[in-house]
Amino acid sequence: MALRRHVKNFVKNYSDSEIKVREATSNDPWGPSSSLMLEISDLTYNTVSLLEIMNMIWHRMNDQGKNWRHVYKSLKLLDYLIKNGSKKVIQHCREGLFNIQTLKNFHYIDEAGKDQGKCSLTRPVN
């Protein structure tokens, strides 16, 4: 899977920022590392990198079905960036609120019958 991702990154000519977001939001069955999320949050202070990061997050957040981990990890990364990145991340989130709101109806049931899209929040989201 890593080789395939590396080739795709090369072929699509993704920037360093986009590659880091793709790595953090991969379909691998483990979460993004805190060091990788820190690197990405540092990149949000650069205007060009911020745009690339946010565009890739919105892109990954719109994945469906078997790529449910892209969605989950995008939300996890976005949460980290809101807390630790540039204040402009918050502005981008406000502007892209529709992308987040569409996830209210997200669902995916895997081959084992487990609902991977089930929300386990303790309080309602407004």
Automatic annotation (TrEMBL):
GO terms for molecular function: clathrin binding; phospholipid binding. Transmembrane segments: none annotated. GO terms for cellular component: clathrin vesicle coat; endosome; plasma membrane. It comes from the Eukaryota. One of its GO terms (biological process) is endocytosis. InterPro entries: ENTH (IPR013809), ENTH_VHS (IPR008942). SMART domains: ENTH. PANTHER family: ENTH DOMAIN-CONTAINING PROTEIN 1, EPSIN/ENT-RELATED. This is ENTH domain containing 1. It comes from Chelydra serpentina.
